[in-house]
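Full entry
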Amino acid sequence: MLASALGCLLVLAALCGCGKSGAGSSSQGIDTATNAADPAPKTVTQRSDPTPTVAVVGARAPARPGTKEVADPQEAASFPAPASVKHSRAATPSEAAVAAGAPSDAEVRQELAQMQAVERSARRTQRLQLTPVPGGQSVGGNGTIAIPADVPEVVQKVIAGANEIADFPYVFGGGHASFVDNAYDCSGSVSYALAAGGLLSEPEVSGALESWGVPGPGRYISVYANAGHAYMYVDGVLYDTAGRSGVYASRWQVGSVDNSGFVVRHWPGL
């Protein structure tokens, strides 16, 4: 009887221990589930605070200075052509005609070596004795100048190109979309002539001509430019849209202008 009672007590004790162990396991399971549903606060913070990189997406580098076409401050003095003015289109600069029988560079160098100083001076003086037509400083005659024989061939081609469009009307922006146009502004005119000599591959605005070639005046060609206007001297003769004598007057002009405020450039060797 006593043994039977002790056996019952042992069974009851075992049952009680199992119950406590199960409760403990259940409680631990609840705590784990609660922690899983409550993620670390730092995760939430990172998601709500992204790096502000969107502000710089699509940003552009600044444009190259000096290349934007701006209003020509001397446009009023260039006889801007009204919309009713019609003019034939120019040929491509490379087709500008050089005087027949123009010598090559080698022939020019040989001729220069043989030429006496007095003869060179006499011809240069004769070329510079140009008479303007009334109303401005444009040269008279047909608006072109003679192509001298005592200058390098490339200079002859520049003069030929300048002659090609010497009497074309002035229109702001003319000659910039293409060398071939029916009107040319100041830098468009200079660009066309330089291209005829192979010294420029595409039209440039006045500001861009400030960095054409190398600094300083040249022996034969000197280009003067600032942000709004450009002109040049070729073998001592002024080529400019401002100061002409009329809508169809020549860009070749008698005399000179004030070069203050302009950058002067030339092609190496010229």
User: Anything to note?
Assistant: The beta strands are 214-215, 221-225, 230-234, 237-239, 252-253, 263-266.
